[in-house]
Structures are given as structure tokens and as C-alpha cells.
């Protein structure tokens, strides 16, 4: 815990004085982020850092393997869908970016089975991408992990289009959907192109 308190102290001393005016304005006017990022909970993939984003710029939801479930308005606790609803319908973001990443443990669990200690929730959650499993396991073993990570992004994008108000906003030209993949070891971002393949962002 001391590590966190020390970090907070540095935030108060160094970051806060620089960002104070921005935070005060955000407090007064409210947030109006233009982008919803759906990223993995992985500690190595921080959207705010990767996009050099300022406070108030990104509305972020992170979960295991950056997955979007299909639209299922029922009594279950849909954390990701709730964040999506708030971002798209209330904040009216202009874009949704699904950010996958290299070395994703959630994707590894999808392909090769979840750790025995992660059976209560992880198994059910990653089954959102189950349709990709067999397809990916037919690939060259050296490419399976990356291909699985790409598929997780593609499936999330497809599932976004099962939400009626996402479809409505996309068709009205108010919302665009994007996919990306971050290389943890390289720091490089790949973007999902219209041809369905990933290419370097710059
Ligand atoms: Zn991950």
C-alpha cells in the first residue's frame, strides 16, 4: 500500500498543479469524452498512457480480454454493457475503440483453458469469444495467440452491433467503431482496417 501512497504523493506534488485547472473545469462543466475505449484489465495496457490522453478525454471500460458481450438486457450484472450504454446514450461519444493486446491472458485461457483458480467467472466470461476458438486453433501454433487476440477484437466489434442504439448511432453517422491491438513488448499499435486485417497505426 505504501507504494500507492507514495505515488499519490507524487501525483499531488507534480501532476495536480499542472492539471488542476483542467480538473476544475471538468468538475464544473462535467465530462464530455469523445471516445469510449474497451480495453483489457491487463496492467500493461493503459489506454490513457498509450494515447497520451488527458483527464476527461477517454471513457474507459476494462475487462478480461477486452470483450463486449452480445446485447442481452436481463437481470444479470452487465458491467461492460452498462458502461457502453452510458457512453453511447448519455455521453454520446463519437467513437468506440476496442483495444486488444499482445500476451493476453484472457485469450490464452480461451485457447488453452483457464487456470483452475479462475473457473467461477473467467470461463463464462471468455466464452463470449468461444466461436473463434476452433478457427484460431487451426492456425499455425506460432500465430494462434496473436490471431486469438485479433479475433477477440473482431468479435467485440461484431457484438457492439447487436446493441440497437449502437446500430442506430452508427447508421446515423454519429458513432464509429474501431479495433486496435497493442504490442506490450514493442509499444506498437496496430489498427484494424476495413479489410479486416491489422496494420501499423503510423
Ligand atoms: Zn488481456
Ligand list:
zinc ion
Average pLDDT, rounded to a whole number, is 97
How many individual helices? 8
Architecture per CATH nomenclature, i.e. the level-2 architecture of the largest domain? 3-Layer(aba) Sandwich
Overall shape: it is: globular
Low-confidence stretches: none
CATH homology superfamily name of the largest domain = Carbonic anhydrase
Mind describing the biggest β-sheet? 6 strands, mixed
Proportion of beta-strand residues: 15-25%
Structure description:
46% of the residues lie in helices and 16% in strands. It is an alpha/beta fold and 202 residues long. It has two domains: 30 residues, no CATH class; 170 residues, Carbonic anhydrase (Beta-carbonic Anhydrase, Chain A, 3-Layer(aba) Sandwich). The longest helix has 28 residues. It is globular. The model has no long low-confidence stretch (mean pLDDT 97). Bound molecules: zinc ion. Zinc ion (ZN) binds next to helix 4.
The gist of it:
The protein has eight helices and six strands; from the N terminus they run αβαβαβαααααβββ.
